Amino acid sequence: MAKRKLVLEDGTTFIGNAIGSERETFGEVVFNTGMTGYQEILSDPSYCDQIITFTYPLVGNYGINREDFETINPSVNGLIVKEACEYPSNFRAEESLDTFLKAKDIPGISGIDTRKLTKRIREYGTMKGMFTSVDASLEESVAELQATPLPTNQVERVSTIKPYVVPGRGERIVLVDFGMKHGILREFTSRNCHVTVVPYNTTAEEILQLKPDGIMLSNGPGNPKDVPEAIDMIQGVLGKIPFFGICLGHQLFALACGANTTKMKFGHRGSNHPVKDKATGNVYMTSQNHGYAVEDWDIDDSVLSVTQFALNDNSIEGLSHKHVPAFTVQYHPESAPGPQDSNVLFDEFLTMIKQHSRREQGTCLNVQM
């Protein structure tokens, strides 16, 4: 098996077996602690430009199937595993992990000490890395990593180009695509919603012309401050239509309401992160994938309420607006992959929409009388 080298920007080097595509790659090296769900993770647009390290030692054992994709064309830049299963065994498996990686032009490396790599990221934070040939100059590789900035246009690259409709007979939802996972669509269509998916840079005026009952802000990659168009759109629609935001949508909502976001040391990426609801005291196990967080000391408590927080590090996991129908969460209630504890948030959003509609109808009746 051909060899491949992983070089980090601090000079740390790992040599292992080449899997997937033959191309060399560059990206931010992150780790995910999920024990399953590698297909959904690899196809999650939120991982755009990143190289994913799986902490679970064996990946690929149940193969790849046609049902568990979260997007058609993955945008992840690479894969790092301890062991990649060559011969999967599962009744749904249609191809191996290596075959899939080759077909999607995703390079990977196996046979390295992923525990050592993860511990280094936890100690020093996420950092840039690249795959090279084993005989490539370490000094030149490190110099290139340190001199090359990470891209800032990830949302533009993963968002839909044109609006499209997924028809239904229920509530009319505008889903703003910042890097949407298909799991969000599945949740709305299972509730018979009529969903219009729009690009990330759709204006407030364009959204209001669609006359939606509710607006969904999707997940997505990168720094929320790199998407100022979305902040303007949220400010232009807030208070007129009920809002629900997930992950990047949560961060953009916070920025639009005057809060601030910051880059985390190594982020939250995994399938069993405990989150506590402040109102009920309930604890939910959640699926997470984010490298930025809302800063708690910058929140105007006359505008926003912190509704949920992470039990591992007390970071903000949920927000609600005090004056208009809008709430957001930092994690992924569509559960792809991960536990389904928080799927009920989609039902709460539809309840919010109905309550808002009744209030609006009552206001109209009072005006007429």
Automatic annotation (TrEMBL):
Catalytic machinery residues: 247 (nucleophile), 332, 334
- Biological process, per Gene Ontology: 'de novo' pyrimidine nucleobase biosynthetic process; 'de novo' UMP biosynthetic process; glutamine metabolic process; L-arginine biosynthetic process
Could you tell me the superkingdom of the organism this chain comes from?
Bacteria
Region of interest called CPSase, as start-end residue ranges on this chain: 1-171
Lineage of source species: Bacteria, Bacillati, Bacillota, Bacilli, Bacillales
User: Where in this chain does the record put each Carbamoyl-phosphate synthase small subunit N-terminal domain?
Assistant: 2-132
Against InterPro entries, the record matches this protein to: Anth_synth/Amidotransfase (IPR050472), CarbamoylP_synth_ssu (IPR006274), CarbamoylP_synth_ssu_N (IPR002474), CarbP_synth_ssu_N_sf (IPR036480), Class_I_gatase-like (IPR029062), CPSase_GATase1 (IPR035686), GATASE (IPR017926)
Oligomer and partners: Composed of two chains; the small (or glutamine) chain promotes the hydrolysis of glutamine to ammonia, which is used by the large (or ammonia) chain to synthesize carbamoyl phosphate. Tetramer of heterodimers (alpha,beta)4.
What Enzyme Commission number(s) does the record list for this chain? 6.3.5.5
List the protein's name: Carbamoyl phosphate synthase small chain
Assigned keywords, A-Z: Amino-acid biosynthesis, Arginine biosynthesis, ATP-binding, Glutamine amidotransferase, Ligase, Nucleotide-binding, Pyrimidine biosynthesis
Where are the annotated coiled coils located? none
Keyword ATP-binding included in the entry's annotation: yes
Q: Which gene encodes it?
A: carA
PANTHER family assigned: CARBAMOYL-PHOSPHATE SYNTHASE SMALL CHAIN (PTHR43418:SF7), MULTIFUNCTIONAL TRYPTOPHAN BIOSYNTHESIS PROTEIN-RELATED (PTHR43418)
Xref: SUPFAM superfamilies: Carbamoyl phosphate synthetase, small subunit N-terminal domain, Class I glutamine amidotransferase-like
Which chemical reaction does it catalyze? hydrogencarbonate + L-glutamine + 2 ATP + H2O = carbamoyl phosphate + L-glutamate + 2 ADP + phosphate + 2 H(+); L-glutamine + H2O = L-glutamate + NH4(+)
Describe its function: Small subunit of the glutamine-dependent carbamoyl phosphate synthetase (CPSase). CPSase catalyzes the formation of carbamoyl phosphate from the ammonia moiety of glutamine, carbonate, and phosphate donated by ATP, constituting the first step of 2 biosynthetic pathways, one leading to arginine and/or urea and the other to pyrimidine nucleotides. The small subunit (glutamine amidotransferase) binds and cleaves glutamine to supply the large subunit with the substrate ammonia.
- Report the sequence similarity comment from the record: Belongs to the CarA family.
